Amino acid sequence: MQKRPTAVVVIYSAATLHFVEAFILAESKAADNSIPIASLLDAFGGHRITLAATMLVSALMPLSVAVQRPGFLAIFALIPQQTLLVITAIGAVAFAAMGHYADGYEPSGGGLFIGADQLPRILLAVSHSVASYQWLWIHDLPRSRWKKSTVDNILARASWASMSDDQDDDLLVIPVDELRDIVESHL
Known about the structure:
Blueprint: H1 5-27, H2 35-43, H3 48-66, H4 72-98, H5 110-136, H6 150-157, E1 159-162, E2 170-173, H7 176-185
């Protein structure tokens, strides 16, 4: 199984984030006025148990498909995780625009301070979108035995020509029309 390691790290990091926040929600109300949790609680109508359960499911689903080859079902495993990240990113932007935190505190820097404070949360939502695309990208799937890569096809139709007795001077010779056909048929 070949996946982009950076994509997997981002997806696993989001899963870890959702695990931790779900346990925080289940154990205490102390973080209810943090921007991410306040945004999620607002989106879920204040239903803590439903939100905590959703966060656990959104963390477990990507982990359950990570051991398998990415495919059609993996898309659905990443949608809840991405949705939660987008909700918190929208909340971060909204509170920055309003110029105060969820508990009403207005820092001296106002919206710019809050925007800078919440920038990692916003960037995680964006990077998760990119990571999801990379993780599910068709070129990350293992190649079947019958399908050759473009490089394999080029080498199969090429001939080696040596200009001298020295092996370092070997050249790869492919007629231009054949190279064009190979590349066009595999892009």
